[in-house]
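Lab notebook, bench 4. The sequencing result for the construct came back, and we need a structural model before the next group meeting so we can plan mutations. Quick request posted to the team channel:

Model the 3D structure of this chain.
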Amino acid sequence: MTDIAKHILFTGGSGLLGREVKPHLPQAWYPTSAEFDVTNYSQMQEFIKDKSLTLIIHAAAFTSPPQVDKNPAKGIEVNLIGTANVVKLCLAHQLRLWYISTDYVFKGDQGNYKEDDPVSPVNKYAWSKLGGECAVKMYDNSLIIRTSFGPNEFPYPKAFTDQWTSRESVRTIAQKIVALVDQNLTGVIHLGGSRQTVYEYAKNLSPTKDIAPLSTQEVAFNVPKDTSLDCSRYQQIVTTN
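Done. Here's the predicted structure in token form:
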């Protein structure tokens, strides 16, 4: 795994997912946003020029749905234009590309979504991430990883009782991503756990914490009702390799 890791660059390395992946792939590159700003293509070119990279895992993003609602320009700049820049970089240098996307690209009226089910976001954050997917789809040597994760301890005092998800702790999702790095995968893959409400997820994650119920009707931003994922492709890959 060390030989593979030293040829990997992970964007968003100081974020929640990057910090959890790093202990598993310590030889990989984890530049800060100041060193590798996805909105600055010439800087990105300069950073990689002396490195023998084969894979970029692109996790850097503006991820808060209510904040993207307030500042859609930043969502466009980071999640759409920034991702397009990463795709262009991979095209120019013939690097593999993995894009960390979200279950929120789905409308949420169905649940148990497969990789080829129609996408239809209900908020601006999800639209910005789907815009990133569109750029990634322009490059054949790419993999879109749709997933949902949160801190290893549930950080909020309330959790939705009427929203269903396949969300898992960032520790678990990081381990699932690392398990794929020696696989030459393309297309789309879903990573997550079993279908449950966000409230059930929160209680399972932090069983001793006093977490109050919350309805999606009580928040000011649009929340998809059921974005649970069918993760059978992932299960088939890891059980047969």
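The CA atoms of residues 45 and 89 lie 7 Å apart.
Will bring this to the meeting.
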